[in-house]
C-alpha cells in the first residue's frame, strides 16, 4: 500500500503563507508517517521547521514531480523484487514532505514500513528507482537473515540462534 500524504501538504502551500502551526497540523494529520520520522530521523525543533518552511518554495517543482512519479516507481521496483526473489511483503510506503532530515528509511523491524521524505529526494526517475530499490533491499536482506537463523547485530558481532 502507498500512503501518499504529499497532496495534503501541497494544499497547505496553496495558501502561500505557511507557518509553524500549519506545518504541525500536517504532521498531526499523518502520525503514521511522522512518528517514526521525528523519533529517529529528524529533530522536530522550531528552528528546523522554520528553516524547512523557507526551503520548501525552491523544492516545490521537485516535490510535485516526485509525487507524480514515485508511486509507479515503487510498484515497478516492488514487482521486480517479487519476480526475482518470490517474496510477497505486506508493507506500507509512506510518501511525505518532511523537515529536511533523512531522505528515506525502513522502519526498525525485520519487515517494516518504508518512509520517503520527498523534499530530500532527487526528481530524476533513475535516482528514485535506485533509492526505492535500496530501501526494499533492506527488507529482503532482513528476511534472508531471519530465515537463515541470524537474529541481528549484537555488541560483539552477529549472533546465530
Task: Describe this protein's structure.
57% of the residues lie in helices and 14% in strands. It has 161 residues and is an alpha/beta fold. The strands form two sheets. It has a four-stranded mixed sheet, with helices on both faces. It has a two-stranded antiparallel ribbon with strand order 5-6. It is globular and about 50 Å long.
Can you give keywords for this protein?
161 residues, alpha/beta, four-stranded mixed beta sheet, two-stranded antiparallel sheet, single chain
What percent of the residues sit in helical stretches (DSSP H or I)? 55-70%
Structural class: alpha/beta
- How are the strands of the biggest sheet laid out side by side? 1-2-4-3
The Cα radius of gyration reads 17 Å
Quote the beta fraction: 5-15%
- Report on the biggest sheet: 4 strands, mixed
Low-confidence stretches: 154-161
User: Can you write the helix and strand succession as a string?
Assistant: EHHHHEEEHEE
Q: In total, how many beta strands?
A: 6
- Could you report the average pLDDT, rounded to the nearest whole number? 86
Topology of helices and strands:
Elements (H helix, E strand, L loop, with lengths): L1 E3 L1 H8 L6 H10 L1 H11 L4 H40 L7 E4 L7 E3 L7 E4 L7 H23 L2 E5 L2 E4 L1
Parallel strand pairs: 1-2, 2-4
Antiparallel strand pairs: 3-4, 5-6
Helix pairs in contact: 4-5
Amino acid at each position: 500500500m502507498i500512503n501518499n500524504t504529499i497532496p495534503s501538504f501541497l494544499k497547505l502551500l496553496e495558501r502561500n503563507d505557511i507557518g509553524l502551526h500549519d506545518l504541525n497540523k500536517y504532521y498531526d494529520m499523518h502520525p503514521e508517517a511522522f512518528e517514526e520520522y521525528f523519533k529517529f530521523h529528524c529533530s522536530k525543533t522550531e528552528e528546523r521547521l522554520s528553516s524547512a518552511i523557507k526551503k520548501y518554495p525552491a523544492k516545490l517543482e521537485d516535490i510535485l514531480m516526485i509525487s507524480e512519479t514515485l508511486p509507479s516507481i515503487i510498484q515497478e521496483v516492488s514487482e521486480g523484487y517479487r519476480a526475482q526473489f518470490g517474496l510477497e511483503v505486506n508493507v506500507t510506503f509512506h510518501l511525505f514532505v518532511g523537515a529536511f532530515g533523512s531522505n528515506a528509511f525502513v522502519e526498525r523491524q525485520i519487515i517494516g514500513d518504508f518512509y520517503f521524505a520527498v523534499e530530500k529526494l532527487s526528481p530524476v526517475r533513475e535516482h528514485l528507482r535506485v533509492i526505492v530499490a535500496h530501501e526494499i533491499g533492506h527488507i529482503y536482506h532482513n528476511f534472508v537473515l531471519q530465515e537463515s537463523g541470524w537474529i541481528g547485530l549484537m555488541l560483539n558481532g552477529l549472533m546465530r540462534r
